[in-house]
Structure formats: C-alpha cells, structure tokens
Design a protein that fits this description.
- This is Aldo/keto reductase.
- Pfam families: Aldo_ket_red, Flavodoxin_4.
- Keywords: NADP, Oxidoreductase, Signal.
- This protein has 490 residues and is α/β, with parallel strands linked by helices.
- 32% of the residues lie in helices and 14% in strands.
- The chain has two domains: 201 residues, Rossmann fold, CATH 3.40.50; 262 residues, TIM Barrel.
- The strands form three sheets. The protein has an eight-stranded parallel beta sheet with strand order 9-10-11-12-13-14-15-16. Strands 1, 2, 3, 4, 5 and 6 form a six-stranded parallel beta sheet that branches.
- α7 crosses α8, α8 runs parallel beside α9 and α14 packs across α15.
- The radius of gyration is 26 Å and the shape is elongated.
- The N and C termini lie far apart (65 Å).
Length: 490
C-alpha cells in the first residue's frame, strides 16, 4: 500500500486534492468535496482538422491541452464521465475506491456523457490524460473504443508530478489498432508553451499547413529548386524528382549525382529497377546532406509474401539510414500484408512515409479500409495522352498526392509526344522545350513529376520550369489532347 501511495503521489496525486484545481497533494487524507464538472459541449472551434481531447480531474491536463490547442489551432474537447468522480472515488488510500477498482479491472469502461460531432473531419487527435497507477484512466479506453479511428493520427500526452509516461501510451494501442500512433509525451503542470511547441514540431505532423495536396505553391519554386508538398505523414516532399528506371551501374550513380548537383532533392527508385545500390551510392557521394534528400523506393509483388525481408533488403541496398517513402509497386497477392509490414517500419522510424503505385479508384477504395495508415501518395502513369482526370480528382479528395511516372510519354512514345503540334506551339511561345511545358502542365494541375534522364543537360532542363506559367487557355489546350492512351500495362 505504501508503494501504491508513493506512485500516486508522484503521478496525479488524486487523493484529497484530486478534483481541486491545484497540482499539489493535500497534507491530509480527509477527502475534500469534488467541484462540479465543467460542462463541455462540442469541440471549441479550431482549424477543423486537429482535435485536442483530454480527461482531467485536477485541471492539470486541461492546462496542457489548452496550450496544445492554441499552438496547433486545434479544436478542444473535454471527456466528461457520465458519473462524475468525487474525491472519495479517487482516494488512493482506499483499495475499494471507484478509481482503484476500475484500474484493476481490465474490462472496466466508465461511461462518457460528452459527445463529438463531425469526428470524421479530424485528421490528428491529441489525447491527454493524467497518470493513474502508472496507466491511463480506463475512461480513455472508453473514448477510443467509441469512435472509428481508422487512419487517424493519435498523439498521446499525459501529466504527472515526476513519473514518466511509462507504457501508458502503448497500452492504449489495442483500443484503436487502426490508428497511426505517435510516441507519447509526459508533461508537468507548469510546462512552458515553448517546450510543448518544440515537441509538436519535432513530430512533423500535418496540421494542415499546405493541406490541399492538389494545389502547389509554384511561386516558391525557382529553377534548380523545386517547392515541396506536405504529405499526410507530415513530411515535405519535393514536387519534381529524378526517375531512375532503366539507369544502371555508373550511369545511374552519375545521374543521381548530376541531378542532386542541379538542385534535385527527390530520387525515385524501386526493387524492380535493380539499381537501389547505385542510387544509394549516388546519394552518399553527392556531397548533399542526407536530410536534404528525399528517396523513394518500391516493393514488387513477388516480395509481398515476405515483406519484412524485402524491406530489410531495401534498407541494406540503399544504405542511407532510412527510407523517405516506400510504395507498393502495384496490386498483388498479399499487398495488404506487405503494406502493414511497412506500417510497422514507419513506427520504428526506418520508413517515414508509405504509399502505393498503379492503384486506381476501384483498387484504392477496396484497399483503404484494410490498412491503418492512409497512403500519402499514389504513383501512376500520367501524361498528356493519358491524363487520369477523374482519378487525380478522386485521389486529391482523399488527401493523397498524385505523382506521374512516364510524364513525358514513356518508352517508344516520348519523341511523338514531344513533337505534338499543340505542345510544340506552346513551347515556342514561352521559349521553352516541349518537355518543360509538359512538366509545368503537370505541376499546375497538382501532379508531382519524376522525369528520368541520364543526360546532365536534360536533367538540368527538367528542373528549370519555374520561370514561366501556362495560361488557362494553354492548360485547356493540353487537357484536350487526352486520348486515354496508356503506354504500359500497369
């Protein structure tokens, strides 16, 4: 009993002072009356996509939650128990007190009276609670199990005098297995706003800064320096990259180095390209800091049955510490199994973002309900003769970035596309090449591009597309070239 008392005193200390506004424990074991619970209606307005939820008896957790909501511009919601806790309910000296019984009962799920409308609108949920006997109060499990949290990002935080968060955040995962969980953080009641802000920024959460994945801020780009789009994982990705399909050996290594020297900061590879080792070598030898480079790779369907071994092989071959983005190359048997393995590597920090390639509306709608982390990106064949207008619109509506492979038409088709009369005429009007016009057209319609080349001049040309803009009429003229003409089988 003494040990139990010490744990509680170092945690929430919810004996006689449990429902008073002060953090410090009282010096008497005489219970004090609990204050009336604060009414909590719908979440207080915020940016519409971030929700800060908390349960608090001493109001310590409330204070931290309010600071988080202010920093993130998030909505604020208090979890209110259907039956309020009294001081006697929280008396740690009484082994039969309500809180003691609940914490010792794995099945305990205290009822909640507060409700959240339009919960599906929120992408990121900060979840705050005090530490009770080294754990989150069971009412937190009630909250998690009452909602559909699939695809949500949950950021747990707790309050205590001195004890850490322990395993309290990990123990909550079973109540929301389809959510993407961030590592929890413990705060004391007087934590500064600066410390809290630093913690939030360290997670690279997508708090809807540049949340419209279908509109790029091209004014921030300059020739040799592409702007970025923020992925739903919270990481920023350059909107122009180098495709490395068909590049091998020294040609691949030198192409990667030439691209990075020209200002590229995104490189795309894949297991099927058989050049991950060369891409990794080019990155390491480029002289550009690793953290400035965004590297994407892909698992092929023949790897889906043993995805952990495949992921480890990618990490070994690239040898660049971590993978910025990993995709499934196209649908196949065990694709969900492979994706869930990638989710585990995201939790370990070895992969930062995950997505798909060659998935269309039917495949995506079937796939999404089966996974926990929403794909940040889909990479499909897109060019003026195969524009995927409906698919692009659908993916953008889901918050999924669209990236074009074969943006210049692909093997055996590039020359014909670049020689198209309409495109050539627009290129001449701007003093640009046809390739530059096509790449700019993609960016203006919100599609990321990864043109491939081993020619240093062409590589430099492909990232020199930020000093001109296509008119609405020119965009319409290129849109009219759509033939639904696919150039590969994927």
């Amino acid at each position: 009993m003494l040990l139990s008392s010490l744990i509680l005193l170092s945690g929430l200390s919810f004996a006689t002072a449990a429902c008073s506004p002060t953090e410090e424990p009282a010096n008497t074991e005489e219970p004090t009356p609990a204050p009336e619970p604060e009414p909590t209606p719908e979440p207080q307005p915020g940016n519409g996509h971030t929700l800060v939820v908390y349960f608090s008896c001493t109001n310590t957790t409330k204070g931290i939650a309010e600071r988080i909501a202010e920093i993130t511009d998030g909505a604020l919601h208090r979890i209110v128990p259907e039956t309020p806790y009294t001081s006697e309910d929280l008396n740690y000296n009484n082994s039969s007190s309500r809180a003691n019984r609940e914490q010792n009962d794995p099945a305990a799920r205290p009822a909640i009276s507060s409700k959240i409308e339009n919960f599906s609108d929120y992408d990121v949920v900060f979840l705050g609670y005090p530490i009770w006997w080294g754990k989150a109060p069971k009412i937190i499990h009630t909250f998690l199990e009452s909602l559909n949290l699939s695809g949500k990002t949950i950021v747990p935080f707790c309050t205590s005098h001195s004890s850490g968060i322990g395993s309290s955040d990990i123990d909550l995962h079973e109540s929301a297995e389809k959510a993407a969980w961030k590592k929890g953080k413990r705060f004391n009641g007087n934590e500064s706003a600066g410390t809290i802000k630093d913690w939030i920024e360290s997670m690279n959460l997508n708090l809807n800064q540049n949340s419209n994945v279908g509109v790029f801020n091209l004014s921030k780009g300059e020739n040799g320096k592409a702007p970025t789009v923020r992925l739903s994982s919270g990481y920023d990705m350059p909107i122009v990259g180098l495709g490395t399909y068909s590049l091998h050996g020294d040609v691949c290594v030198n192409s990667v180095k030439a691209a990075l020297a020209s200002g590229f900061r995104k490189i795309d590879t894949a297991h099927m390209y058989d050049n991950e080792e060369e891409v990794g070598q080019g990155v390491r030898e480029s002289g550009v800091p690793r953290e400035e480079i965004f590297v994407a790779t892909k698992l092929y369907p023949n790897q889906f049955s043993n995805p952990e071994a495949a992921i480890e092989e990618c990490l070994r071959k690239l040898d660049i510490g971590y993978i910025d983005l990993m995709l499934l190359h196209h649908p196949g048997t065990d694709d969900v199994k492979a994706y869930k393995a990638m989710e585990k590597y995201v939790a370990q920090g070895k992969i930062r973002s995950i997505g798909l390639s060659n998935y269309y509306i039917k495949e995506m709608t079937e796939f999404l309900p089966q996974v926990n982390i929403k794909p940040v990106l889909v990479q499909n064949e897109i060019h003026p003769y195969y524009q995927e207008k409906g698919i692009v619109e659908y993916m953008h509506s889901q918050g999924i970035v669209v990236e074009a492979w074969y943006p210049l038409g692909g093997r055996g088709h590039t020359a014909a596309l670049l020689g198209n009369e309409t495109i050539s005429k627009i290129a001449n009007a701007h003093g640009k090449s046809s390739a530059q016009v096509i790449l700019r057209w993609d960016l203006q319609r919100g599609v990321v591009v990864i043109p491939g080349s081993s020619n240093p001049d062409h590589i430099k040309e492909n990232i020199s597309i930020f000093d001109f803009e296509l008119t609405d009429e020119e965009m319409s003229q290129i849109a009219a070239l759509d033939r639904n003409e696919k150039h590969d089988w994927y």
